[in-house]
């Protein structure tokens, strides 16, 4: 390979700051401090301090900070047009490259002048091979097989499995059709001939389009198996969403109209539209089932329990199976069930299904609400308080049993509510291991720390290695990681990238596979990064500020308080018109809160001020934290601090305090 710079690496970033930092650290190591070429980051108007991080920690990186999200194709083209090296690498920010990845790839391209583009072997955060590392062109037949699942049922078939080319050995280098946009090495002279990325594609499809044009121009695309990278995947895109389905298949339509003609184009587009409806339907059903299967089962169990308790009490106490009126099953049973279900939801029981404390709290709260309303019902709708108590006891027992059953089938044990701490080992030096443990303590993540694993392949220079192990909590050397993982029943391994190479980390993840969860710690970083699935967003253990208001339970509690206060204000609406400063504004605000347009308490600095501070989004507030101090003149800096601590340490008591002290301003508009 030539001694002059050969490669321009381009990373397009959008709100994945911590992944970008880790990616840049790996690229800079692989780039040998600029010896191989230059590195560019194009940021698409991120709101998570990505730009500030690049400027502060990677001054050698060329940075383009866009003021809007221009999309993948436009952003890459910006950097391609400003760079000059003979090769261009388009790289996703949620990746880690090995130390020799760039040199190996450029060397391959140098000895294969027919190669227009190159992709590599990719694994996800669980060490599982990503089949999209090599793909075939999406012809109508390939699209048909993909849409109707034939490629999934026959992945190694040359007839049905052409979408991911499953019949080609993943451990061997092959000529392929399509390169993955996550790692796409391109020859600049070919780009000069065929043009840059097509900016008609916003987020998907540009890699397929460019790969197709490379082959049409007489060049070849290669899948290069001699180096492997990690692609956490799912971090910049949420594949379980309708938006993904729409955006992805819309890109396929653009591709079909551009490259196919006549009947073939019509057939392809018809296939794509069929796929859109099929995948959209599957996504809706899948998402609904994931979120609703437990509440639906709870509803059936509670409703059935009310019926059983009614039958039992009618026979046992009244000695008359027909004692209760038909209205009981038409009104009372559905009403009790819905109240309990709503109480379970507000208590956060469905956020943590195995949390029996939340389950009990939700059912008891629901029983209190039912009892409170019971006295206001007409006489014919107040059949028996005993049935309410019996049904509450039934629901407690039945729903708890249901949680035990689901937990057993999921984990193989009955320790509901007593989650076993994951057995953790850290691969790194003594100093890095202690730093990682401190990071875990700071973010409140509990693990069963088994010990440290020496990053050197073998332990040498010690006459009594067992003494060294005991003193430093050292389990052994990384060269025996597979044996150590089995011996100590490890559930999670954290690799300190300051002490162990990315290549070794990737190799061990591939070797051990998805039975263990893996995380990495960038050198000097304050974030522990990992992902256990290619279809889910990467997971972060970070010391960055955590806002309590971001918790779903806290948000529901805030909404419930808004409604309760609104219902309390309704019968007082007339006198309130004369007590608050703007009576008409109060009525409008009351309606806005009831219909979910506003909240009684939001940011004092307004929506724009909160956005500038990068605080969590809230509904527009009638009052703000500063309204708790009506007699004080607060400067802008103090107001910003009050907003910050309001969302960081949120509790409904804060909202009540603001409303009680600033109630005269409830008519503010």
As a whole number of angstroms, the C-alpha radius of gyration is 30 Å
**Which superfamily, in CATH terms, is the homologous superfamily of the largest domain?**
Spore Coat Polysaccharide Biosynthesis Protein SpsA, Chain A
CATH architecture of the largest domain: Alpha-Beta Complex
Low-confidence stretches: 461-472
Number of helices: 23
Provide the structure class.
alpha/beta
| Helical content band | 40-55%
> How many discrete domains?
4
Strand content is 5-15%
**Shape category:** globular
How far is the N terminus from the C terminus? 67 Å
Strand count, sense and barrel status of the largest sheet are:
9 strands, mixed
Task: Tell me, rounded to a whole number, the average pLDDT.
Answer: 85
In the CATH hierarchy, the third-tier topology of the largest domain is known as Spore Coat Polysaccharide Biosynthesis Protein SpsA, Chain A
What top-tier CATH class of the largest domain fits best? Alpha Beta
Number of separate strands:
18
